[in-house]
Structures are given as structure tokens and as C-alpha cells.
């Protein structure tokens, strides 16, 4: 491991500078890494360029000019397009290079991208993360990796800059599957928490007290104490967009279906997030799912 005064060796590419990608790339730059960035909307590269990042006009150019390229895209379609589409990263890959896809995708997408990357002679690692905006800013993400072990070992210093822990899970597809299971649980928990907040208020209890009670018991989770107070105020600052939570539930249900596993709670939660999307809440935080329950109670009142 290099000491704090040394620059990390190797040129690092970063594709996708959204809510998660921008702070992750920023942490790499601040740690002294040689970072080259690309984003569909070029203006999002500006703040990172001002911190010292280089810019290239396509994923292909980033990959061609870097030793390892990280990608943090919104969904499977974007992940495939940026990796394998026109001027995609695959066109700039080759022996001695590595591609690390941090996007949350299904296992089939991870395996598809892996196949294209490996065909160039490069190495591939899927590394979806558990954590949202603030953990990304604070370098406290949890990496769920799978793929080439040698690439995992060589990018470990970069993962340690961006995260607090990392797991190596074996074959490509396992990282995606673990992330979907985690987010399936999270989405169901938030839906149930929303029901509790509304029920407490409706029977005359103070929902803020409910948040305190929950936070001190066996069912305590940081998510509840973090999101609860703002949810009581009908305020949903976006840390993890609701549309992405619904996408992850949809993908998790598909994963469950592929192995004939019953997931009735997640299926019900998915329907609630779909209702919330229909009310125009896609870009709000996923905690805004409570608004779908409010609307449903008004519909039946």
C-alpha cells in the first residue's frame, strides 16, 4: 500500500458522474490518483476537471488511455451501451487493462459485459455497491465484487479509497445477485416503515416518537433514523432515486423467478413503488414511496 504522500500508480478512468459516480471519482482524485472522466452530459465533468481530472470525449477513449476503468451507470441498458455500444469502453480495452463495473445490474447483464471485455484480453470485475449518496461522499461504500481475482487484488487500493469494506464473491453474476438481494430487502423495509409511520399518525401517535422507539429496539436500522424525520415532514431529498429502487426490485423479482423462489413481500413492495412512480416521484428519494400510501388511503377514504 502506498503512503499518503505518494500518488497511486496507474491511470484510472471513471465513466458516469451521477449522484454516486461524481463523489466516488472525487475521492479518487483527492487521494492523488490520476483520473480521466467521461459522462454523457459533459457539464457534470466540470467540477472534477477543476480538481485535476482529465477528460475524454467517449468511453472508448477513456479505456484506451487508462489502465483500469470504473463505470457507474444508472441501469442495465446504460451499462451495456457504455461498455459495448458505439465508441464504448470495449473498443478501448485490451490485454493488461481492467474494467470494473460498479453499476447495479442483473446477473445476465454482468455476464454479457464480462464476455465482451474478456474477448479483448482485458480483465473484468463487477463491483456494485451497497450505500447511497452520503456513503459515496464519505468513502463509506460496501463493494460486492466478483470476477477476475487478480484484478480485484490490483484495484483493492482504489476500492479502499471509495469504500469502507469489500467482499469478493467468486464468479461474475454473484456481485449483481448479492446487490439485488440487499436492495430487495431495503425496498421492502422502507415500504413497511412507511406503513408504520402513517398508521401511527392516523391513530393519534407522534410518528417522530415512533422513529425514536424503532431506533432503540431490535429492529433498529440506520435507514430508519436517517430517513424517518424527513419523511414525517414529507421531505425526500434524493440520496437514492425512487426509480432506481423500483428498478432493483424488478430485477430482484426476475432473479427470484429464475430460481422459482417465492418473494411475495418484495412483489407487493414493487407494486407500491410503481404507484409512486406514476405520481411523478421517480426522481425523489425512495423514501417518497410513503406518498403512494397516502394517496391510496385517500382513494379509499
TrEMBL record:
GO molecular-function terms, A-Z: glyoxylate reductase (NADPH) activity; NAD binding; NADP binding
Q: Which reaction does it catalyse?
A: glycolate + NADP(+) = glyoxylate + NADPH + H(+); 4-hydroxybutanoate + NADP(+) = succinate semialdehyde + NADPH + H(+)
Residues of the active site are 179
- A Pfam family (short name) is NAD_binding_2
Gene3D superfamilies to which the protein is assigned, alphabetical: N-(1-d-carboxylethyl)-l-norvaline Dehydrogenase, domain 2, NAD(P)-binding Rossmann-like Domain
The role this protein plays is:
Catalyzes the NADPH-dependent reduction of glyoxylate to glycolate as well as succinic semialdehyde (SSA) to gamma-hydroxybutyrate in vitro. May function in redox homeostasis and play a role in oxidative stress tolerance by detoxifying glyoxylate and SSA generated in glycolate metabolism and GABA metabolism, respectively.
Q: Which SUPFAM superfamilies does UniProt cross-reference here?
A: 6-phosphogluconate dehydrogenase C-terminal domain-like (SSF48179), NAD(P)-binding Rossmann-fold domains (SSF51735)
Q: Which Gene Ontology CC terms are recorded?
A: chloroplast
Span of domain 3-hydroxyisobutyrate dehydrogenase-like NAD-binding? 173-292
Superkingdom field = Eukaryota
By sequence similarity, the record places it as follows: Belongs to the HIBADH-related family. NP60 subfamily.
- Entry-linked InterPro entries: 3-OH-isobutyrate_DH-rel_CS (IPR002204), 6-PGluconate_DH-like_C_sf (IPR008927), 6PGD_dom2 (IPR013328), 6PGDH_NADP-bd (IPR006115), HIBADH-like_NADP-bd (IPR029154), HIBADH-related (IPR015815), HIBADH-related_NP60_sf (IPR051265), NAD(P)-bd_dom_sf (IPR036291)
Kindly provide the name given to this protein in its UniProt entry: Glyoxylate/succinic semialdehyde reductase 2, chloroplastic
Q: Which UniProt keywords apply?
A: NAD, NADP, Oxidoreductase, Stress response
Annotated 6-phosphogluconate dehydrogenase NADP-binding domain residues: 11-170
Amino acid at each position: 500500500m502506498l503512503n499518503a504522500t505518494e500518488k497511486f500508480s496507474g491511470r484510472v478512468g471513471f465513466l458516469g458522474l451521477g449522484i454516486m459516480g461524481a463523489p466516488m471519482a472525487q475521492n479518487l482524485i483527492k487521494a492523488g490518483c490520476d483520473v480521466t472522466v467521461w459522462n454523457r452530459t459533459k457539464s457534470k465533468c466540470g467540477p472534477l476537471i477543476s480538481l485535476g481530472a482529465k477528460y475524454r470525449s467517449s468511453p472508448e477513449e477513456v479505456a484506451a488511455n487508462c489502465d483500469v476503468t470504473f463505470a457507474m451507470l444508472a441501469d442495465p441498458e446504460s451499462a451495456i451501451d457504455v461498455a459495448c455500444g458505439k465508441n464504448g469502453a470495449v473498443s478501448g480495452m485490451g490485454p493488461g487493462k481492467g474494467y470494473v463495473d460498479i453499476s447495479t445490474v442483473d446477473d445476465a447483464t454482468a455476464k454479457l459485459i464480462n464476455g465482451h471485455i474478456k474477448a479483448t484480453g482485458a480483465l473484468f470485475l463487477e463491483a456494485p455497491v451497497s450505500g447511497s449518496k452520503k456513503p459515496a461522499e464519505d468513502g463509506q461504500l460496501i463493494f460486492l465484487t466478483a470476477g477476475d481475482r487478480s484484478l480485484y487484488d490490483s484495484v483493492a487500493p482504489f476500492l479502499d479509497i471509495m469504500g469502507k469494506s469489500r467482499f469478493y464473491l467468486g464468479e461474475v453474476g454473484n456481485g449483481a445477485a448479492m446487490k439485488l438481494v440487499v436492495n430487495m430487502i431495503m425496498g421492502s423495509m422502507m415500504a413497511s416503515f412507511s406503513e408504520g409511520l402513517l398508521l401511527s399518525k392516523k391513530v393519534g401517535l407522534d410518528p417522530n416518537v415512533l422513529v425514536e422507539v424503532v431506533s432503540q429496539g431490535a429492529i433498529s436500522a440506520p435507514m430508519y433514523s436517517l430517513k424517518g424525520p424527513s419523511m414525517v415532514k414529507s421531505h425526500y431529498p434524493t440520496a437514492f432515486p425512487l426509480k432506481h429502487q423500483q428498478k432493483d426490485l424488478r430485477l430482484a423479482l426476475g432473479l427470484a423467478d429464475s430460481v422459482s423462489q417465492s418473494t411475495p413481500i418484495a412483489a407487493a413492495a414493487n407494486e407500491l413503488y410503481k404507484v409512486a412512480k406514476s405520481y411523478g416521484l421517480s426522481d425523489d428519494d425512495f423514501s417518497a414511496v410513503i406518498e403512494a400510501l397516502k394517496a391510496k388511503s385517500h382513494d379509499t377514504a
